[in-house]
Specification:
Radius of gyration: 16 Å
Number of domains: 1
Strand content: 5-15%
Shape: globular
Largest sheet: 3 strands, antiparallel
Order of helices and strands: HEEEHHH
Helix content: 40-55%
Number of helices: 4
């Protein structure tokens, strides 16, 4: 199943609590799991990341995430004083980067809807009852 994460869950991702690897290296499998109590609809979310996403994740964690740290912090998107980056700040930054790179004015919620549309375009389902 394909899913697009809400920005609140994205901001809260913790390297130890939500991201797991079967083993290190290129042949390792990486999962993200969000427990039901932190998901809006109270359903556990869990999925395997594609290899290309794992490569981007590893690059970010190794090279770019350390630049954001002001001390010990295990959140994927670190904020200040060991906390996660705020939802508003992450949402704003996503919108800024997309606009800088594409000229498009979008927000994370719109990205979720676009992702759903693209998924349905690639995986049409019958809407008959």
């Amino acid at each position: 199943m394909t899913t697009l994460m809400r920005v609140g869950n994205l901001a809260a991702l913790h390297l130890d609590d939500h991201i797991s690897r079967t083993r290190q290296g290129a042949d390792g499998v990486v999962h993200i799991a969000l427990p039901a109590e932190i998901v809006k609809n109270y359903n556990l979310l869990e999925w395997q990341l594609p290899a290309w996403v794992v490569r981007i994740l590893d690059l970010y964690v190794e090279r770019y995430r350390p630049i954001l740290l002001d001390g010990p912090n295990r959140h994927l998107f670190p904020g200040k004083n060991g906390r996660a980056k705020g939802v508003g700040g992450l949402s704003k930054r996503v919108s800024e980067v997309v606009h800088q790179r594409t000229g498009l004015a979008v927000n994370p919620h719109l990205v979720r809807h676009l992702g759903a549309k693209l998924f349905l375009d690639d995986n049409p389902v019958s809407m008959t009852s």
